[in-house]
């Protein structure tokens, strides 16, 4: 039996970095609006509370990955998960956001009624086992785009034969002891390059097994300029200046990679050679087949991965897996890798909008048939917003701009007496392309279930911060592709028809 609960102006789904940020902008810019954050798990923090594998850290600097409204004060610019989690929970606690979070509230589905101009949301309470229902004027989905309860592991021939332990980083056992053991980490993405130097401190040996190389770039874990500015300037001013510097640097690297990929490839290769042992086969293990930023660059703070390789505590093997064996992995080349523990750092499973089902006036919403409007709404779906950050820069830069635009959108609706806001395609046959122009495997595997994007604004899923500043922060809320109506006007139109 479903128990009816209260009505809320805005329901935010997810208490991670995006949800906490959305709550801040709502209560700051619209103090009269009621809101609640629904969190399926029992803790806040999203990704940073979920992953527990050794060495977990950001791969973006916290001066841009952090919120624009809350300075990052730690000396570490590339920060570990515990520091990021403290930052997020401090933000939620000091501003009163924490009291709005409803833990163990898993959203199963939401049904929109145009006649009532509201969503009815079905929620499963994991702590009590009951199902409750809430209504809301708006849904704001801040749950990111991957599944929290399940990582991706491809099928490996002979997996059941392996006598050791197989672990996915998303489900890292707290009691896993790697001391003195032979560990093989399958993968070469951000998770793998984080794990390997952390494991190499105690393991007997760690091998990174990759099918093909990834671009890996060493960065300083501390931003000297940021730390210096913080000593001589007020914290908020130092933070703003550092943030601008780092945004400009990120943009410069990305644009240069797009315009001059061969030059950037050579520069990264030269940096890698300086970090690796003399005579190391850099082209075999660190020379990808794709151009820089076709996939996200992997950064390693203070060159920790390269230091582990230099010490001989870790090694890289580039080959394909033929089969697991009782004692490890046999490769297609015939080489055998002995292992006590195999870590499958093989990626994520994409899950849009927390896995919830949507319907509009009784019709199920097929996300694959929808097109993203301004990177924050879906064609034909009223009063529904979502937050997906940048794939070529710090995630939170985009989320902040989306939240600013969202609060302006609500203000416009108040001023005009509108209850309903619905993006509509100018032409059902409008050309579209995949939602994310990104080569990561987890994205490619899921494009068929994702919404799409158009070829130009406002239907473009922009990955350009400066363009988004103009569009989302400075641009008008009204748009020819955005319909604003009220319940009264809708009812009158229905009667006239």
From TrEMBL:
PANTHER family: MONOOXYGENASE, PUTATIVE (AFU_ORTHOLOGUE AFUA_8G02570)-RELATED
Organism: Streptomyces olivochromogenes
Coiled-coil intervals: none
Family: Belongs to the FAD-binding monooxygenase family.
Annotated keywords: FAD, Flavoprotein, Monooxygenase, NADP, Oxidoreductase
Residue ranges of every copy of the FAD/NAD(P)-binding domain listed in the record: 9-224
Pfam name, any one: Pyr_redox_2
Known cofactor(s): FAD
Protein name per Swiss-Prot or TrEMBL: Flavin-binding monooxygenase
